[in-house]
Amino acid sequence: MSKETEVDQSNNNDAVDSGANEAEQTGSVSNEEIEQELLEEEQISETEQLQQQVTEANDQVLRVQAEMQNVRRRVERDVENAHKYALDKFSADLLPVVDNLERALSSISADDEGQKAVAEGIELTLKSFVDVLARFKIEPVDPAGQPFDANLHQAVSMVPNPDLEPNTVMDVFQKGYTLNGRLIRPAMVIVSKAS
Asked: Where do the record's region annotations for Disordered lie (predicted)?
């Protein structure tokens, strides 16, 4: 072999070696790029997962806040009702006393001078009792002459009466009472019906 051939072959070997080195570098750059892309995808995936978790956590916090607000409102309403209707049973037990005082007044003869002082005493007692009831929002339901209302009245009987419209309260046996608008006791009434 001549020197020229050796130099050409040496140049060829160098060219092959440099091509191989370039191919190796290109291959390793490609692997690095692929690894970099995989890392970026993993980071994006992790970021999306974290964002989803944050969104779910925010949603859960909003639900808990709404539930707490509902519980607070419910408790406030229950406390308000407890204050409003605390006297419900107590007032229902006092109503027979008012009924008895009214019956006592109606049974006393207005003409008898001996009972006049007793009647005045019962009348004053009844008035003060009714005033106390009114102060605590206990109101009477006296529906004489009004249309029958099943929510406030209890019909004891129905009597034919051509002078009144059907379902009109003719007479009241016993007054009803409400506490802050809530019925404690219905009025016991006689209702007219068509003849």
From this structure: 1-53
